Amino acid sequence: MRKQFVVIGLGRFGSSVARTLMKLGHEVLALDKNEQAVQGLMHDVTQAVQADAREEETLRALGVRNLDVGIVGIGDDLEANILITLMLKEMGVPYVVAKAQSIQHGKVLEKIGADKIVYPEQDMGIRLANNLSRTNVMDFIELSLDYSIFEIIAPSQFVNKTLGKLNLRAVYNVNVVAIKKNADQIVIAPGANSVVEEKDILVIVCNKKALSRLPD
Ligand code: ADP
């Protein structure tokens, strides 16, 4: 579903978030007080505006309160980061994501109502370590503390068997939500008759313990 986002602070983090959201088909209003940062993104987003986002009037004039998600990517200026997160929540933006510099900063953001707090470098580090620790895990999205969506290369023991025969839910407590056959072909919600083939990528939902029990 197409959503409307505002991204405030277009450093490395904010600008990659803004560009990716556009590629995914969403509407993105991008804001930075720095002219160069705005210029750099002008052709890549729905609207790029140069403004100091601490000014509440500016945010109101841009209609920020009617947008679905606010992302605060300001890094070094803690005061601006906290103030803007607070203003977005007070204006009624339903979902506000804020970038934190430290655990303490994250706690403050949580107290003032941020819906999601990201620690880009730590998050990336954890992601990378998880990816590297199992050679057949290609990517994952954390759903909760325990559950994630993983993309794994089909274990050799699974090859040429149907999902019905493998019975992964009962045996490993793993749900297969899609099978990627190649770059263009993906079977969504595969049924019991779907056959796992060599080099397939299985998109599974399970907890981390279940993942570690899967054969390589
Ligand atoms: P990163 O580490 O992701 O590159 P930075 O902290 O370097 O993040 O980038 C933050 C961006 O936020 C900068 O482009 C800066 O101009 C912008 N910024 C900082 N304060 C404000 C503000 N009050 N209003 C709008 N943009 C801001």
UniProtKB/TrEMBL annotation:
Single GO MF descriptor: monoatomic cation transmembrane transporter activity
Residue span, RCK N-terminal domain: 2-118
Protein name per the record: K+ transport system, NAD-binding component
Top-level taxon of the source organism: Bacteria
RCK C-terminal domain mapped to chain residues: 135-216
A Pfam family it matches: TrkA_N
Classification via InterPro entries: NAD(P)-bd_dom_sf, RCK_C, RCK_C_sf, RCK_N, Trk_Ktr_HKT_K-transport
Segment forming the signal sequence: none
GO process annotations (BP): potassium ion transport
Gene3D superfamilies cross-referenced by the UniProt entry: NAD(P)-binding Rossmann-like Domain, Regulator of K+ conductance, C-terminal domain
Species per Swiss-Prot/TrEMBL record: Desulfosporosinus orientis (strain ATCC 19365 / DSM 765 / NCIMB 8382 / VKM B-1628 / Singapore I) (Desulfotomaculum orientis)
